[in-house]
Amino acid sequence: MESAQVVIIGGGATGAGLLWDLSLRGISAVLLEKRDLANGATGRCHGLLHSGGRYVVKDTDAARECLAENLTIKQIAPHCVHDVGGLFVCYPQDDPAFFSRWEAACHTVGLPITRLSADETLALEPNLPNTILGSFTCPDAHIDVFQLARSNIEAAVAKGGVFHPYCEVTAIVHGGDQVRAVEYRDGPGGEIRRISCDIVVNAAGGWAQQVAALAGADVSVRCDKGTLLILNHNLVGRVVNRCRPPGDADILVPAGPVCILGTSSMTVPGPEGVAADPQEIAHLMALGQELVPLMTEARILRIFSGVRPLYIPPNVNAAGGRDVSRGFALLDHGATGGPKGFVSIVGGKLTTYRLMAQATADLVASKLGVRVPCRTMEEPLRAPVDDAVAIRARKVMPAQAASLAERRLGPALAEIVTVIEAHPEMGEMICECEQVSRAEMEFVMSERALAPVTTINDLGRRTRLGFGPCQGTFCGYKAMLAGYRSGRWSAEQASAEFKSYIEERWKGQALVPQGKQVEQLYFSHDLFGANYGFYDPEER
Amino acid sequence: MGNARFDLIVVGAGLSGLMTASVAADAGLSVCVVHSGLGLFVFGAGCVERVPLTDAEADDEPAALTAFREFTRSAGCPFLTGDDPEAGFYLPTILGSFQHLHLAPYSLHAGIAATGCRVAVVGIRGLTSFDARFVADRLGGQSFGLGAPGIYVAREIDLGLPFGTVPTPLLLANRFDRDAGFRDLLGAALRLAADKVDRLLIPGILGQISTHADIVSFEAGLGCRVGELPTFPPSIPGLRLYQALAANLRDRGVEFLGGFPVTELLLRGGVCEGVVVETPARPKRVSADAVVLASGQFSSSLLGFNRNGVDAEARPLRSAGGPVAVNLYAVGALLAALDGGCGGNARAVVSGYRTAMRVVAATGGKERRHAMR
Amino acid sequence: MRCDDVGLDNCLKCSDCNTVCPVMTAYSAYPGPKHLGPELERLRREGLSCDSDWLEYCLGCDRCSLACPNQVPVSAMIARAKTRHVKPAIRRWRDFLLARPAVLGAVFSVAPALSNAMLGFRPVRRVMAAIAKITDRRSFPPYAAPFRLRKAASSGHSDKPRVLFFPGCSISFNQPGLGQTVLAVLDQAGFDVSVAGAGCCGIPAMGNGDLAQALRCARANVKNLAFAAELGIPVITACTSCGHMLKSGFGEVLAEDADMAAAARHVAAASYDLGEFLLEHWAGEEAAHAPGPPQRLAYHAPCHQLSQGTGRPWFHLLRRLPGVDIVDLNAGCCGMAGTFGFKDEKYPVAMSIGSRLFDAIACRQPEAVVSECPTCRLQIEHGAAIQAIHPVEILRRVMT
Lengths: 540, 373, 400
Known about the structure:
The complex is a heterotrimer of chains A (540), B (373) and C (400).
Chain A lengths: L1 E2 L2 E4 L3 H12 L4 E4 L15 E2 L10 H17 L4 E2 L3 E5 L5 H14 L4 E4 H7 L9 E5 L2 E3 L1 H14 L3 E3 L2 E9 L2 E9 L5 E5 L2 E4 L5 H7 L6 E11 L7 E4 L8 E5 L2 E5 L3 E3 L9 H14 L8 E12 L16 E5 L9 E6 L5 H16 L18 H10 L2 H11 L3 H10 L6 E3 L4 E2 H8 L10 H8 L11 H11 L5 H20 L5 H17 L8
Helix pairs in contact in A: 1-5, 1-8, 9-10, 9-11, 14-15
Chain B lengths: L4 E7 L3 H12 L4 E5 L12 E2 L5 H20 L4 E2 L8 E4 L5 E8 H4 L8 E7 L7 H15 L4 E7 L11 H10 L1 H14 L5 E5 L8 H9 L4 E5 L6 H16 L3 E4 L3 E7 L2 E7 L6 E10 L34 E3 L1 H8 L4 H20 L1 H8 L1
Parallel strand pairs in B: 1-2, 1-14, 2-11, 7-8, 7-9, 9-10, 14-15
Antiparallel strand pairs in B: 3-6, 4-6, 5-6, 12-13, 13-14
Helix pairs in contact in B: 1-8, 1-10, 2-10, 9-10
Chain C lengths: L15 H5 L1 H5 L6 H13 L17 H5 L6 H10 L5 H10 L2 H8 L3 H8 L2 H11 L29 E5 L1 H7 L1 H13 L3 E4 L7 H5 L3 H21 L3 E3 L2 H14 L4 H13 E3 H8 L3 H4 L6 E5 L3 H4 L6 H7 L4 E5 L18 H18 L3 E3 L3 H11 L3 E2 L1 H8 L2
């Protein structure tokens, strides 16, 4: 039987960060995720590395935490961060009193900001409306959430951590009042396996309540749905925040080649099956146009909804989603009458994932009697790429493909460069939109990669394959064939996987109300419908 | 344009647009095709499916298909039926599935599912968008499911492309068109791959501008029939069909104005007098006695009328009822989008034929031709 | 980034553009317009460096933009990227020269006989090929004494409608005779012609990625022609590449400057290709009465004729002339692309692209090929060894 000191449940940023933290301290840990990494809130957010500006007026503690973590993450994971900077833009329709309150609060917290005139702002961001009054710069950044989760896992695996994707926990076994083991299903429809352990950490985000119930514990999590729009290209070069109290659709983040607008906020019964409704989308679009008028013409690639797991401490009765604290809570259930060795980490936000992991790991370490201190604030998640390798990459790949591959692969770039040098045809761009080469795709699919791939979509989370304008219409087929050739899937499995992949990609696009993506969707429907008998259940 | 006035303007050069233009040109009408892009020719190969049509369309279907076969034959891209034309036949796809069809171009037709047939699916080294083993693997099982079990084996040929070349179907097709040495090399490799099989299935690469004669003579050198499988867009057999049909129409006096969108219909008093095309420098007005919209479902919104359905003559309706114009018709995928019926190539061919016949009747096609002589 | 530029969002990745790209047919490794255009444009907006030597291989023929079902300005995107492309020294200097045909023309046409002798002298060409990478496998167009307005000085008052002829570099320095023919035809068609005192249209500069020079040309020409646009005087070109610049190029080059861009749009609205103009504004009775010698001609439509969206005016004009038997070759791009075919490393690509056209000509065996574009004619004469003339020459022959 498998055993570990700690089992972590939930492969989001927090779970992955915790796996890394524990592994660094020499504590053996296994991370169980019921789907793929970053499938929950981590993979369904703006990807905004907050500077703290958003919370500066209402919650100075949260703002300070964000600012500190913002600087730390830029240090330890530069490959995940696009340090584009941010603007808090003053719109004429917003309350001018807030602008000065906000500015003052920034000074109190120590957030470095610079005031820009309207003209200076428009020179930087010509797509903003020319009615704006001015703006403030701040150190906001975009963080690639998939890379962040993947890098934490890869770093942890290199130190002995274990990651099991597609392993749903079915039971938390506790003898007496102490947790003893975790049982999980090994793959969809797979066998039940058991890992014996001393401590179980519930880092299941929106699913924390269900996981706690398996241990007979109670965690109160409110699921707050947020819907986001992905736009095809960078309409802005910096994170654009609306300088006003946090509300709907007031942040636009340039996220790599795309930009993401969000969000809404709406309480939902549970983490599963959330989807945007047309009214909500119309509302977001209307607000988005106030932010950047060009939004009316720009192409929306897809629309997706995520669930913010908001922690409601007992005896608190908060009204709306935005009123609940963005702070996190670490619950030691053993201390409050629950099973000993069962810990939940809930609430918080992406920017503070490392801090949450640190706090949890500190508690776990003290329970295990391990005295090694946390080092995640100084240990780089990934070694930098050797200059010589980067130069070799530029010789065998187009400039943009080399820089993107470097960003995604880190030191593993050397492996694919070596492959392409020997077999130049491996430099073929399988995903043209996001410039993913055949060598990279096959590397990520191979056993040598540390975070295994089960579906075509998993490949997307690691490489952005299929995340561009065509939404996998052209590259999905080649990826499927690569999986077939590698022996991962039989021909029947491969074609079934491909069909479900395409239909899943259609779902996010089907919500787009108008414009070019609808044409792209028709195009995809016609292509797959007429020739291969796929059909969209939403359409007919 | 020779004359900026025509008997008929067809907006769109997909299958329905070209079919409409052909039938109208046959009846002696002067036709201008205003288009941007190649319609859905980049998707497949113009194969005509078995789909449900409306009763009225079903009545015209035989005549429409005959006209289509005549059009494609004279354009040098003949379409074939199955042994039993009524029952249709099954052709394989690159996904290893079968499609039920009515008519298919010669170069695809060889893939027809047949009991006991030994077929080699041939991949090309380095061509990642096609995997012979995958296709063969699936076709075996799928053909069994159709009740026409065949024996499918996978083979791979190496065309000795320069080191590091990443072949795509378009690249290979361009080589096929321009390089006799490449055709010989491909032929020799396929001849070896044809050992002990009845037929070959290859990805669609037999040239963008190659003619029927080119393909027949290429095949003659192989000793067995070879069927093309259209790959992901751009599909080479589809491009070839487009080139052939467009060239044929040009030879028959049809004008093409390609590359610019139609931005406005010139509507006056319930009549469509022509269209405005957004050409550089200044918009161009092209007028005609009738206008057929074959613009597909993608860009129908450009024309700015709401989707209020069509009348029995396939004329788009105004929201208040009544046709947008008495001489404005919709065909193909646009018609399907308006009337909620099926789309696809069968609808394109039949609706194109029916609408062209209506326009001919309305504008007195034959008399016009006689008057011209 | 320009505020209004969302054209790249229209790309559905259908690859129609790649299927019509002349370079892709001839050069297997060329990544094609879809990649160099909208695909990379999206990543350029992200701030990634996407520079590539492949940009130099784009002909600027505009066929990709025309093939796009969604009006993505593919060609313009590549042209913009070209202006930021960094070239090694030799190619940079060579392209600097090739981008300035008016300068070369002014120099060589001072003493045309001497220039032609020098440019035709093999050792000189070998040195040019070795040092400047200008191919010695084709000859230069001969230079002549510059074109000037030579006609019965209609200086006095004329009640004929006025038109302004924009000659362009080729007519100005290489084919002044063609310029005279144009003047004669327009005169006979009933127009009072003046010649625009304008320089190069700037298309060679665009083709070579020389934005500064293209801007100079565009500004100078727009300023020069603005009066005509204002007075409603048609501006007429007999070169389709000049026509392409007048109608679309100036607007694209000057897009960042709102006032100049507006002026460029006015100039565009007044600009006509000669054939387009004659087809619309000339009844053609003169020709109908004058039977010419029977001729079998083949028409090659230049890429920049197609990009003007005017149909096939010259084909229709010539077809209705008595005794003219004309066929439209419809065999794609000739491959010359202005200065492209003169570059040593690009010469084989240019010839390979043209081979389809040369084959079509060989197959039809016409007495001559007619085409509006001077560099298409150079390429046809070089590759198909047949006389290639401007269609107006045919018209002139049958006009009384």
